[in-house]
TrEMBL record:
Location of this fragment in the whole protein: 172 to 989 of 989
Protein name: Alpha-1,4 glucan phosphorylase
Listed EC numbers: 2.4.1.1
Residue ranges of the TM segments: none
The keyword Glycosyltransferase appears for this protein: yes
């Protein structure tokens, strides 16, 4: 056999070099004697891709042979960021690649910078999906992700004169070596039309006669695990015109328009919706949801049928996870395929559905829950509407039996919302049909049980669980902070923590060691210098690595209270200006860094961005302030910018109004990197406090249980003088644009201030003063920083995914032999 069956590509630098040069010539089409950084990046990526494909095949073949229960993770969004560094690290070939490149006169780090982000998502929910994919692969779980291959990712944020402008992110422009196009793996997805009743093989059947059919084509994105051969798959669907042409529509004589109309099919997968607040009942969004769900479900059922004769074993072999309610049309879609196409009787199909689906909620606000107008659904997916009505009918009967004719309760819990616009409540549909409903942190789950889904909790308490979010230490330490990574391994005497994060707490044993402290500080300083250089290059503001780097990086939302941060900065500026020379010597120099995108239609969020720039402009150009205070806004915050900012941060802010941040995951990434947290007692921060102790962080603000009472007090709430003074400064035009900022100020005063900035301001300033005090004592600060990293183990997505696997999905590892 000449070893053909195990003829893996070789990973020594010489073999890699040969592969890279071959790809320069045969894939990129350049001369192997002359190519630039980008072409070298392409060739290197293709060499890595070849290795991924090899492992991908082995893994899938192994899964097929072993036939374990599989998990399918359905999400409308995945924020993968860049792939090159992550891939070579997970494949264990980074040093070899670097060597190979060096000899060709290239530097790995420079090539890695050539890659653009895959930004197929908005924020937390989407990056969580990416981290969980990494954990699933690393932990050898037989799991695939399914999503949409948007041609335009999340918009690029461009700042002009302090205002956010959105530019399209046509990310496929330069090709994408990380995907494998499978033109032959495709499914027809139907829309519109009517439902007809027919007799088929003696069965009474509903037949959906569609008005439009679109083809879904598979693009596979290999997800390599770390320290394993397992490489799983993220399958993204692209919409293409369907290949079956009926003569009639072409016979009308308008050939050109007939073709153009068909080409419109591609718009379904063309653009990611950039608003992460609430559902707006847009038809295109609904089409996207159904398109991706239908293709995925068809694919899953086809794969199951490849090795099973009937559906008896379906629930033992398949688990479907819904990332929020966005993919919840998968529920009626599975029902439809089983009942209408596979001729499974309704009762059995329903039994299957109730066993395979689980979903995770990522929001706190009931207003954030998706609703689909019935009119829209009945025109787009007439058969699904029938199925939803049928599910609801049985559900309401069950409710009546249990609670009697409590009409208020029935109307609250019904999947169908009556009213001005009759709609389908996707959350209720999911609650009725899923066997597990997970919150993303403990407090979040408590809020779901006692407020948002109270009625359902009373009915099915056992369905309600929570799995606190986590992030991947591969991406957020190994890839993005190689200095810290090496240091951790050195002091633990092993790099096993990269797969077994609990080991990281071993750092606690060395926290008093002056040598570790020294090295810790050095690594962090190098990261800060790198960040300072980036900031100077991007926005021209010079900052000193001796200052405290204080960051708030996340989507701009009122509840996340970037405004509170800015008001605090204005206050600090004021204080410094009023100090005499000798007092100024005691001021801890700060660089405040804010980054994040505002949804294009979110006016207030956009004003917050402008205010940040206006205040920064004033402070940064005030010679009287010197190096004591800077405020910089980092434009176009995304995954790769995060990889740069997080390792270089001293202090980070997670300051949502208590009870509003479902979990937060940025706090975990920063914690892992030894950044201290200044935070409210909200979301997953509560669990971070339990791990590292409140003495190692700076907490402030009203508690979640106090918020309702405080709101009810309205204008009777006490607001500190400093707060009114700072708001007045903005009103008076100290930072210009007073007319533009008026509504922002109004939202903070009088009957406004829904998010309680005034109420929390005094304790916020105190927490900030505590942080300053701690920073003066650099030895103390460094110890706290080490303890943050050491205490971050629970916030690995490995832990989260392990809990889901055991408690919800009931899947086991299936490790492909090397
Ligand atoms: C809905 C309908 C139409 C278009 C877009 C949406 C939509 C997209 C994203 C709605 C919400 C979206 O994301 C919500 C989100 O990111 N939530 C965050 O999830 C994180 C992971 O669980 C949590 O850590 C954050 O607290 C939570 O805000």
């Amino acid at each position: 056999m000449f070893g053909l069956m195990d003829g893996f590509l070789k990973n020594d630098p010489v073999s890699l070099q040969k592969d890279i040069l071959d790809h320069v010539e045969y894939t990129v089409g350049r001369s192997r004697f002359s190519f630039d950084d980008f072409e070298a990046y392409q060739a290197l990526s293709h060499s890595v891709r070849d290795r991924l494909i090899e492992r991908w095949h082995d893994t899938q073949q192994y899964f097929k042979r072993k036939d374990p229960k599989r998990l399918y993770y359905l999400s409308l969004e995945f924020l993968m960021g860049r792939s090159l560094s992550n891939s070579v690290i997970n494949l264990g070939i980074k040093d070899q690649c670097a060597d190979a490149l060096n000899q060709l006169g290239f530097e790995f780090e420079v090539l890695a910078e050539q890659e653009g982000d895959a930004a197929l998502g908005n924020g937390g929910l989407a990056r969580l999906a990416a981290c969980q994919m990494d954990s699933l692969a690393t932990m050898d779980f037989p799991a695939w992700g399914y999503g949409l291959r948007y041609q335009y990712g999340l918009f690029r944020q461009v700042i002009l004169d302090g205002f956010q402008h959105e530019q399209p992110d046509y990310w496929l422009n330069f090709g994408n070596p990380w995907e494998i196009e499978h033109l032959r793996i495709s499914y027809a997805v139907k829309f519109y039309g009517t439902v007809e009743e027919k007799q088929l093989d003696g069965h009474h059947c509903k037949v959906w006669v569609p008005g439009e059919t679109v083809e879904a084509v598979a693009y596979d994105n290999p997800i390599p695990g770390y320290g394993t051969r397992n490489t799983t798959n993220l399958r993204l669907w692209a919409a293409k015109p369907n290949g079956h042409y009926d003569l009639e529509s072409f016979d009308t004589g308008d050939y050109i328009n007939a073709v153009i109309n068909r080409q419109r099919a591609e718009t379904i997968s063309s653009i990611l919706y950039p608003d992460d607040r609430s559902y707006q009942g847009k038809e295109l969004r609904l089409k996207q949801q159904y398109f991706f769900v239908s293709a995925s479900v068809q694919d899953i059922i086809r794969r199951f049928k490849d090795s099973h004769r009937n559906f008896d074993q379906f629930p033992e072999k398949v688990a479907l996870q819904l990332n929020d309610t966005h993919p919840s049309l998968a529920i009626p879609e599975v029902m439809r395929i089983l009942v209408d196409e596979e001729l499974v009787n309704w009762h059995n199909a329903w039994d299957i559905v109730r066993k395979i689906f689980s979903f995770t909620v990522h929001t706190v606000v009931p207003g954030g829950l998706e609703k689909i107008p019935v009119d829209l659904l009945s025109s787009l997916l007439p058969r699904h509407l029938q199925i939803i009505y049928d599910i609801n009918f049985s559900f309401v009967e069950e409710l009546k039996k249990r609670f009697g004719l409590d009409y208020d309760r029935l109307s609250r819990m019904s999947i169908v919302e009556e009213g001005a616009v009759k709609s389908i409540r996707m959350a209720n549909l999911s609650l009725v049909c899923c066997h597990a409903i997970d919150g993303v942190s403990r407090i979040h789950s408590d809020i779901l049980k006692t407020r948002v889904f109270k009625d359902f909790f009373e009915l099915w308490p056992q369905k309600f669980q929570y799995k606190t979010n986590g992030v991947s230490q591969r991406r957020w330490i190994v890839v993005s902070n190689p200095g810290l990574c090496a240091l951790i391994s050195k002091w633990l005497g092993t790099d096993a923590w990269i797969r077994d994060i609990d080991l990281i707490m071993g750092l606690r044993d060395h926290v008093e060691d002056a040598e570790l402290q020294q090295q810790w500080k050095m690594v962090r300083r190098v990261n800060k210098i790198r960040l300072a250089e980036y900031i100077e290059a991007m926005i021209g503001v010079k900052i000193s690595p001796d200052a405290m780097f204080d960051v708030q990086i996340k989507r701009i939302h009122e509840y996340k209270r970037q405004l509170l941060n800015i008001l605090g900065i204005i206050h600090r500026y004021d204080c410094i200006k009023n100090m005499n020379k000798s007092d100024r010597r005691n001021v801890v120099p700060r660089v405040c860094i804010i980054g994040g995108k505002a949804a294009p239609g979110y006016e207030i969020a956009k004003k917050i961005i402008k205010l940040c720039h206006a205040v920064g402009e004033t402070i940064n150009n005030d010679p009287d302030i010197g190096g004591l205070l800077k405020l910089v806004f980092i434009p176009d915050y995304n995954v790769s910018v995060a990889e740069l900012v997080i390792p270089g941060s001293d202090l980070s802010q997670h300051i949502s109004t208590a009870g509003h941040e479902a979990s937060g995951t940025g706090n975990m990434k920063l914690l892992m990197n030894g950044c201290l947290l200044l935070a409210t007692v909200d979301g997953s921060t509560i669990e971070i406090i339990e791990e590292i102790g409140k003495e190692n962080m700076f907490l402030f603000g009203a508690k979640a249980h106090e918020v309702a009472t405080l709101r009810a007090k309205g204008q009777a709430r006490k607001v500190p003088l400093q707060f009114s003074r700072v708001v007045r400064k903005i009103r008076d035009g100290y930072f210009g644009s007073e007319v533009y900022f008026k509504s922002l100020c109004d939202s903070l005063e009088g009957s406004g201030d829904f998010y309680l900035l005034g109420n929390d301001f005094a304790s916020y300033l105190e927490a900030q003063a505590e942080a300053d005090k701690a920073f003066v004592d650099q030895e103390r600060w460094t110890k706290m920083s080490i303890l943050c990293t050491a205490g971050s183990g629970r916030f690995s997505s490995d832990r989260t995914v392990g809990e889901y696997a055991e408690k919800t999905w009931r899947i086991e590892p299936c490790r492909c032999p090397f």
